[in-house]
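lol ok so funny story. i was supposed to be doing the assay writeup but got distracted and ended up predicting the structure for this chain instead. priorities right. anyway since i did it might as well share w the group, maybe its usefull for someone
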Amino acid sequence: MVLGFSVHGISGNGAKAFQCSACGSLVARSDHLISLGGTNRHIFINPGGIECDFQTFISCPGAIAFGETTDEHTWFTGYAWRMAFCRQCGQHLGWYYQGVCRTRRPSEFWGILLSRIVSQSS
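and the output, tada:
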């Protein structure tokens, strides 16, 4: 399934911290959430039949992208993706998306699996 979307802006006030469920390090804050297609929460089924429930962030300082980009099986038209891992412990967190052309907005974003993060209110 591929999603065509429009960007509705960054949401949240930063009061919530999203931490890696494995090591507890900070991945992102709620003011980095970004709505794509009217929501910052997305649920897709990957080619292996696994449900992927994730939120989209414009920035994830605690994550690192790794591997070659690909647009194969992308859920976001016009974006290629790479795997995203916790910068501290290396747990798989989700995906990093980059626009395949310079005019794509946002030019990049992160899809972080809800099962790989825990949230704490400030």
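The radius of gyration is 13 Å. The chain has one domain: 7-121.
back to the writeup now i swear
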